[in-house]
């Protein structure tokens, strides 16, 4: 397969070249979905796929659309069957619904602790003071690393999901140099943790992975390190933006906020609708393994294919009132966590954290609003949808 080395999912679409479009890309997605449901982007050297049924087709066919990009990165995210299934089955032992649900009281305690000092002020920067720290603390504890390093983790994981500032060669190279440094730092950090655990096993995920076997073979140190990095980045970024995007919706639609405060039973379905309406991940990359025809377009083997779940989640062929936020929408077959064999491993944990944070906020606050004069800045990423900070003012009900 003639794989390209320039990863299209790091390069911004020219259709989203203003801050306003990046803060709300869905109008552009809708136009592309209707006008060019499958199109080749010459600037990014990739195919873009926008309709729900086509996005789902790409994501559920790993034999046609491979996750592998280059041989140097064999983390779970960039792995195809059968090794993908073997490693995923192993890791699922640590992420059973029962084990995740047992974390609920502790997650609630973390949320309360992070929130407590802000209640009297009636203001909180949601990203930096709640939605950012909480998932990093939880993931760090699960993996078995000090939560005191969470600021370092947050900074490095932000770099790993960052996109190029534009579609120039210089911007792409600058980005890849930044990512390489971040990977190197995280590799060394987690390799030290693995070495410590080999001498002193504990009740954490690193120790579980050290002891595990796949078909009689132990995982290599590199396998364990890469999985820890994946878990840190995916568990951190997805949940931070899920929480922030949910609160952003409630601030943008005050009547919705009041309705959910009065009917907390809507909170789980509100989390699901956030994943559809303002998904943390809007695009997922694959590489065609063979020639494929999609919507009359011929995709050649080795070409990159970007599946725009952010567009698919607004496809009116699939979702009635697709442009409306419906807090009790059922069924809700969104692809906010992806689809197929790479469906987000941490989805149960992200859902739990999202639900608990919304319950905690609505138990203590009323009339949450974006602080007057705040200028939102989008995260610099072509595949992550979120904002860099979100200052909220509110009335405390404590």
TrEMBL record:
Pfam families: p450 (PF00067). The keyword Membrane does not apply. Keywords: Heme, Iron, Metal-binding, Monooxygenase, Oxidoreductase. It comes from the Bacteria. InterPro entries: Cyt_P450 (IPR001128), Cyt_P450_B (IPR002397), Cyt_P450_CS (IPR017972), Cyt_P450_sf (IPR036396). Belongs to the cytochrome P450 family. This is Cytochrome P450. It comes from Paenibacillus wenxiniae.
């Amino acid at each position: 397969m003639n794989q390209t080395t320039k990863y299209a999912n790091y390069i911004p679409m020219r259709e989203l070249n203003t801050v306003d479009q990046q803060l709300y890309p869905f109008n552009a997605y809708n136009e592309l979905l209707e006008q060019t449901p499958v199109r080749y982007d010459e600037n990014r050297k990739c195919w873009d796929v926008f309709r729900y049924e086509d996005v789902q087709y790409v994501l559920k066919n790993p034999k046609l659309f491979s996750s592998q990009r280059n041989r140097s990165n064999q983390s779970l995210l960039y792995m195809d069957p059968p090794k993908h299934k073997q490693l995923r089955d192993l890791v699922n032992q640590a992420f059973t619904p029962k084990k995740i649900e047992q974390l609920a009281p502790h997650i609630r305690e973390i949320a309360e602790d992070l929130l407590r000092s802000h209640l009297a002020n009636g203001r909180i920067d949601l990203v930096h003071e709640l939605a950012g720290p909480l998932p990093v603390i939880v993931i760090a504890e699960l993996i078995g690393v000090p939560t005191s390093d969470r600021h370092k983790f947050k900074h490095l994981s932000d770099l790993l999901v960052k996109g190029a500032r534009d579609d120039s060669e210089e911007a792409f190279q600058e980005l890849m140099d930044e990512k390489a440094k971040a990977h190197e730092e995280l590799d060394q950090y987690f390799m030290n943790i693995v070495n410590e655990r080999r001498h002193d096993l504990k009740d954490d995920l690193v120790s579980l992975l050290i002891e595990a076997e796949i078909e009689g073979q132990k995982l290599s140190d590199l396998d364990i390190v890469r999985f820890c990095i994946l878990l840190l980045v995916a568990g951190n970024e997805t949940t931070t933006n899920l929480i922030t995007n949910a609160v952003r919706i409630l601030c943008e639609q005050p009547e919705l906020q009041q309705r959910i405060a009065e009917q907390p039973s809507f909170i789980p379905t509100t989390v699901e609708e956030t994943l559809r309406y303002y998904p943390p991940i809007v695009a997922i990359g694959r590489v065609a393994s063979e020639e494929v025809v999609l919507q009359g377009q011929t995709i050649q083997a080795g070409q990159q294919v970007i599946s725009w779940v952010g567009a698919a989640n607004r496809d009116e062929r699939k979702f009635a009132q697709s442009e409306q936020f419906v807090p009790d929408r059922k069924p809700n077959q969104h692809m906010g966590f992806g689809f197929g064999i790479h469906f987000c491993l941490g989805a149960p944990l992200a859902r739990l954290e999202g639900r608990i944070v919304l319950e905690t906020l609505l138990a203590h606050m009323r009339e949450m609003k974006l602080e007057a004069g705040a200028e939102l800045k989008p995260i610099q990423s072509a595949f992550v949808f979120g904002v860099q900070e979100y200052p909220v003012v509110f009335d405390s009900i404590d």
